[in-house]
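User: Reviewer 2 asked us to show a designed sequence for the structure in our supplementary figure. I'm pasting the structure tokens here. Could you produce the per-position amino acids so we can include them in the response letter?
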């Protein structure tokens, strides 16, 4: 279907500079989604940022095989109100918007 056109990352290897940059972009997206929901910026917490980077790499690998993936990190951070959980769905369409045309190609 034309409206289901999706993008596949060309640099899925997180060890490459493009792959590392794409993983950081996805991690920043996850952090922004969490901040919008919870009001906490995970980019300021080194441990949480490391967890986001690992989750972003896994999400990129998943999106190579499937059109959608879910990033679920229970207890990503805790504050006075208790533990906070990250649960974000990432699609190839979202990835295409994050990575721009220079890193993607149509399937």
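Assistant: Here is a per-position design you can include in the supplement:
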């Amino acid at each position: 279907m034309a409206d289901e056109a999706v993008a596949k990352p060309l640099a899925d290897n997180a060890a490459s500079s493009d792959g590392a940059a794409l993983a950081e972009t996805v991690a920043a997206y996850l952090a922004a989604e969490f901040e919008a929901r919870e009001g906490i910026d995970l980019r300021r917490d080194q441990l949480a940022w490391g967890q986001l980077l690992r989750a972003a790499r896994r999400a990129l690998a998943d999106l190579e095989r499937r059109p959608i993936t879910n990033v679920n990190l229970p207890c990503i951070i805790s504050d006075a109100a208790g533990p906070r959980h990250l649960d974000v769905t990432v699609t190839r369409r979202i990835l295409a918007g994050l990575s721009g045309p220079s890193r993607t190609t149509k399937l």
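For the response letter, you might also mention the following. Residues 1-14, 103-107 have pLDDT under 50 and may be disordered. The CA atoms of residues 27 and 52 lie 5 Å apart.
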